[in-house]
Every structure is written in structure tokens, then in C-alpha cells.
Amino acid sequence: MAVARKIKTLLTVNILVFVGIILFSVYCRIQDRSQELVQIVRSADRRARSRGAKVGSLADRESILQRLDHLEEVVYNQLNGLAKPMGLVEGPGGLGQGGMAATLRDDSHESETKYEEYGYNAQLSDRISLDRSIPDYRPKKCKQMTYPDDLPQISVVFIFVNEALSVILRSVHSVVNHTPSHLLKEIILVDDNSDNVELKFNLDQYVHKRYPGLVKIVRNNKREGLIRARIQGWKAATSPVVGFFDAHVEFNTGWVEPALTRIKEDRKRIILPAIDNIKYNTFEVQQYANAAHGYNWGLWCMYIIPPQDWLDKGDESAPIRTPAMIGCSFVVDREYFGEIGLLDPGMEVYGGENIELGMRVWQCGGSMEVLPCSRVAHIERTKKPYNNDIDYYAKRNALRAAEVWMDDFKSHVYMAWNIPMANPGVDFGDVSERIALRQRLQCRSFKWYLENVYPEMRVYNNTVTYGEVQ
Known about the structure:
Keywords: Disulfide bond, Glycoprotein, Glycosyltransferase, Golgi apparatus, Lectin, Manganese, Membrane, Metal-binding, Signal-anchor, Transferase, Transmembrane, Transmembrane helix. Its cofactor is Mn(2+). InterPro entries: GalNAc-T (IPR045885), Glyco_trans_2-like (IPR001173), Nucleotide-diphossugar_trans (IPR029044). One of its GO terms (molecular function) is polypeptide N-acetylgalactosaminyltransferase activity. The chain has 470 residues and is of the alpha/beta class. Among the domains are: 59-88; 134-379, Spore Coat Polysaccharide Biosynthesis Protein SpsA, Chain A, CATH 3.90.550.10. The protein contains 14 helices and twelve strands. The protein has helices at residues 2-83, 109-118, 122-127, 165-177, 201-210, 226-236, 256-265, 308-313, 334-339, 353-363, 390-405, 410-417, 432-441, 446-452; strands at residues 154-160, 184-191, 215-219, 241-246, 249-251, 269-278, 285-286, 292-295, 301-304, 320-321, 329-333, 367-379. The strands form three sheets. Strands 3-2-1-4-11 form a five-stranded mixed β-sheet, with helices on both faces. Strands 5, 6, 7, 10 and 12 form a five-stranded mixed β-sheet that branches. Helix 11 (390-405) runs antiparallel to helix 12. It starts with a helix and ends in an 18-residue tail after the last helix. Mean pLDDT is 86; it is low at 26-56.
């Protein structure tokens, strides 16, 4: 009986184990199948959602395209409505496209009158598109360069007095067309008390409708001159970097990124875009050779050969150390410009302020350089806008700069203008504040500047006397 019970117990256990194995196998198969069903359901759901999303995105895209078409039509009509009543042209193509020389068949007495008024062919300018393209004269290496994503924004300041409206607006269009929108914070137009009626209402209406919120207009109640007008532009600027330009320029592709990069690397750098020429009579854009900006002892600016170390490098894209600047364009850190004393507000009209700034920046711990990768084309006018006595103001400003910054070498300036040091007969104003500025900034001597920055400048030693032989 005992043996029979053991056999019965073993059979029962075996049966239970066998049933357990079968049940476990069935359970596993059910789980696998359920997972497959879940995956199938989820996949079907994703496909359904995807189809719905595609249908939705297609519908959204059609809606967006319709809106863009409508917006394009509105903008086109709006722009034509702004430009045509003023006799101006917008958009690509037309006369002067690509910086080519342009002419008019119907040259008239009006054309000659505008030549005399503006110092360039204003009648031709009115027929050239505000959006024309110009040649890309950057060195090849510049076109391959990349720049940081976190560059500071720039405020672009244009100074004008009795300029042709089309030339001002082409400057504005050009900087907008060739500057990334996230870098261009604002454009500031400083009107130095122009007499021209179309530079009032027409200009205001155009820029505020064409570029709402982007363009500010500052109007001087009296004519201050280029120097103090630029200071007014600086006061109105709000971005970290400010660019100062004449209001008769056109910007080249990629002009702003290299300038902002150099200033981001060193805020005490003043950057001068390389200058190309716009011919005053045909508006043809001509390339100028790479050059530094120098001056003679009369403090008249001029192009000079780049330093020998730059020539030895053989890299046309490299920055060019320059003793001073021609003056039609420069880019500077806004706060740094204030720290070093802006431009000298005691100078009149213009002339000499560009040389004085170069001396001051170098002597007071900063630097100045021409940047071949940043290019701006500029009209060299045959007539200056302020008055016919610019020589007097250039002389006055030169003596003012000499008294503050040039130490014993100031005698060279008096000699260049052929006037005595003891009684020059020129009232250059009170320079005590500028001398105090030099002391506060702990600036170097002019001798250091000549030896380290402008060694090409010829020095006259042991001069006994000077004057004219009649």
C-alpha cells in the first residue's frame, strides 16, 4: 500500500508539472501576440496621425502661400506707390546694375545745375535703382571666412546736408540689403539742417513707411558741421557698436561681419572698411587698391602704401594697420568711443578730426585698422556741401589737434601752413578740456606714435626758419 501511494503521488506531481509547463507556454504565446497587436495598433495609429498631419500641413502650407502671395502683392504695390511719385526706382536691374557706368541721353541744363549743387550727377542717380547691385571686390580669402554667431548689433549713422534724396535712400537700401537683419539694430539719419524741401516730408514719409521702426531721423536746429553732427548720431545710437558713414555710399556683400568680429575680439579697435570709388559722373563702381590712411604735416589725409609687415605676409585679406583715417566711414564700439572723447566738439565743420582721432586712439592705448574684407563704395564729390572756405576750417582744426597731441612736433604743422607759432592769426579755441582728456587717459607721446605707428612720416630736424619766397 505504501508503494502504491508513492507511485500515485509521483504521477500527480508529474501531471501538475506538465500542466504547468503547458499553461506557461500558452501564457508566453498570448503575451507575444498581445505585444504584436499593441505594436500593430500603435503603428496604425501613427500612420493615421501622420496622414492627418500631412493633410493638415499641406492645408497650412497652402494657406501660408496664399497669404504670402497676397503680402507680396501688397508690398509690391506699396513700394511702387512710395518710389514712383518721387521719380525714383526700386528693385533689381536697370541703369547702373552691377556697378556699371551709366549715362543719360537727355543731358540738360537741369543736369548741369544738379552737378553744381551736389558735386555729382544727381539726375542720373534718380534713374538708377535704389537696390542696384555692385561688384564684390573682396579678396578671395574673405569669401571663405566664417564668423561667430554671437556678434554684437550695430547702429548705422548717416550724416547729410542738402544731399540728393536718391543718393541718401540708396545708402539706406544698400545697408539694409547687405546687412543681416539680426545684426542691424537701427539706421540713424542725421540731417544737419538741410535747406532742400524734399529732404523733409518726402524723406520722412518714405523711410517710415518703407522701414517702419528701423530708421530714425535726427534733425539739427542749426548747422553744426560734420563733426558735431556725428556726435549727435552717436547720442541717438543704442546698439553696442556704431558705424559712421557719409550718406553717399553703397555697401558690399559681407561688410559687417568682419568689422563686428574684430571689435568683438578687441573693443579698443576702430575699424575702417576698405573704400572703393563711385564715379561722380557715371556712378560706375571702381575698385581701389588696398591701402592704409595717412596724412601730411598739414593734416590733409591721403592713401598710403600699407606697412611693410603687411606686404611681407602676402595675405590681402589681413587687417592693415593705419595711422589715421580718410574719414568717410568708420566702425567703433559705442561705449569705447565715449570713453576716449568721441570727436573733438571744439573743431568746426570738418577736416582734421579724422587725423586727430587716429593720433588719439593710438596714443591712448587703442588701435585703428583698414579691413579689406569689409568694403564700402563712396562717391568722391566735386563739391563739398558746407561752404567754400573749408581750407580755413581745416587749418583751424589742424592747429587745434597739433596743440593737444603733437608735443614739440606741432611746429611741423605751423610750418606746413606757413604761419608763425607765436601769433598764428587763427583762433582755434580753448583746448584745455582736450589736454585734460589726454592726461586722464595717460596717453603716450607723439614721438612714440611716429616711431611705432607712422614711421613713414618724414620729420624735419633743426629747422632755422620757414616762409614763402616772393
